[in-house]
Structure formats: structure tokens, C-alpha cells
Amino acid sequence: xxxxxxxxxxxxxxxxxxxxxxxxxxxxxxxxxxxxxxxxxxxxxxxxxxxxxxxxxxxxxxxxxxxxxxxxxxxxxxxxxxxxxxxxxxxxxxxxxxxxxxxxxxxxxxxxxxxxxxxxxxxxxxxxxxxxxxxxxxxxxxxxxxxxxxxxxxxxxxxxxxxxxxxxxxxxxxxxxxxxxxxxxxxxxxxxxxxxxxxxxxxxxxxxxxxxxxxxxxxxxxxxxxxxxxxxxxxxxxxxxxxxxxxxxxxxxxxxxxxxxxxxxxxxxxxxxxxxxxxxxxxxxxxxxxxxxxxxxxxxxxxxxxxxxxxxxxxxxx
Length: 318
What we know:
Elements: E1 6-15, E2 18-24, E3 26-32, E4 37-42, E5 48-52, E6 55-59, H1 63-78, E7 83-88, H2 93-98, E8 106-111, H3 114-123, H4 125-128, E9 137-141, H5 144-147, E10 155-161, H6 176-185, E11 186-195, H7 203-217, E12 222-226, E13 236-242, H8 252-262, H9 271-276, H10 282-293, E14 315-317
Parallel strand pairs: 7-8, 7-10, 8-9, 10-11
Antiparallel strand pairs: 1-2, 1-14, 3-4, 4-5, 5-6, 11-13, 12-13
């Protein structure tokens, strides 16, 4: 008779009635930090996975798509990025990508939880890939909502690479006053980008940020889309905001020329992917237009959550 093998499954509830489950092949770390529960484990198809509280944050197989699109699109649009602020981003992927640009002089990363950086250094070195030791990199530990007001007219690019705002450690980052402070910290021609989640499951998150950023910047914010296979639910939305104009004005030829000049290696990002990411489907365009016009985010319809399922089995027997 075969011995029973216990298999550990990591469940994430996407919305009421939808769970995704990742089977762990090997548990690497399980830590309760001052702010959140963190587990890192190996999977068969997504590589190593970092889960924070109840959400998949990053996978070694899929993170390059997210980090490359988040960073290279605004950097090549701006084309003179020297000083960058990353809020969150404790795995180091965003820092790794921005530091590929030779013109970048300073990257300040704000994270509330120092243990995330330590765990990423130890268990996910391929994601930060030396970024934390780059002389241009500066780490500040603390609440972004309290630290950002210390900066004024400093940054060419702000990257909000924080977890979804649903009661976790990043909850203070998605308020109107926070976005107003981001505006003050940006230079006049600066660009802000933020992750907006997987909008087919949760359009409210993307819409509420587009609405708040439109008001803070007094200029319509927008989104571009990237592929996504570590957060289930189709594409990933990236939100952008600037003081004037839009960031989708470059021709494909111009993007190609800037990309070639930047001389960086990517796995997903290409000039075509950049150019195409601004062409939105009809439903996404309508979501964005609705959010831009909305003056009170409470009017944006929260998805009908129904009852959140309390069924999250930890193990199964083979």
C-alpha cells in the first residue's frame, strides 16, 4: 500500500465563487512579518511564487511581463528619466528593469515591510538580480503615505508597485491625498504609473484609481494593457497619469528608435507590444471613460461580491 502524500494547495479567491489554486511542490519560507503573512513556495508551472496574505504577488515565471511593461513604457515615452520613485516593489523586479536604463541616476524604493526585501534577497534573487546592490539604488523603509510628502518636484517617474488595496499593508496608498502628494513629488513633465489589477475580474480597482488620478492631476488618466499569467483573469491593466496630454502619442517607428538607443534586453516588452498596449477593447475603453468622468469613486459600481467563500482547504490526499 502506498503511503499517503499530503499535498499543499495555495488558494486565492478571485471573486465570489472563483478560487484559483496553486499546488506547492516545495515550501521555501513561511513568515509572519510585522505587517503581513508571507509564503514562498515552488510550483511546477509558475516557478517560485511569493504569496502575501491571501494573494499571489509575484511568480518567477511571469514577473518579467508585469515589470517590463510597468517600467519601459513610461521610461521610453518620457525619454529623459533620471530620478525614479518606486512605492512597494519589495521583490526588486521594477528596480531591476528601471536600472537597465543607462540615463537613470537615482532609484528610491519605499516599502513598508523590510522583511519582504530580505526574503526576496534570500529566496528570489533572480527577480531583483543585483538591483538592491546597484549604487544608484536607495531603499527607504516606511509608509509611503508618510514619506512621499517629504519630496517635492523630485521625480521623473513614480512607479506604484504595491499590492491591491483591500485592507493589507498598502491600504494607505490609494487615497486622494496620497495621489495629490505623488503629484507634488513629480516634476512637471513626470509620469506616474501604477498596477491596476486584472480588470475583467475587478474593474473597480482600476476605475477608482483612474478616477482619483484624473482629479489629482487635473488631466484624464488612462490605462494600457499587458499580458498576464500569474494573476488569473486575462490581461493586466497599467494605469498612467501626467499633468498634461497623454502618453500614447509615439509612433511605432519612434518607439523602435528609442528602444534600440536604450540598448536594453527584454523578454516580453517590444516596441510592438508597447504600441499595441494602448489599443483598448470596447469594454475597457468604456470602463476608462466612465472612470475619467466620475467625480466620486463611491459611485463606481463595486462588483457584486456575494458571500465570500470560507472553503479554503489546505491539503488533499492522493
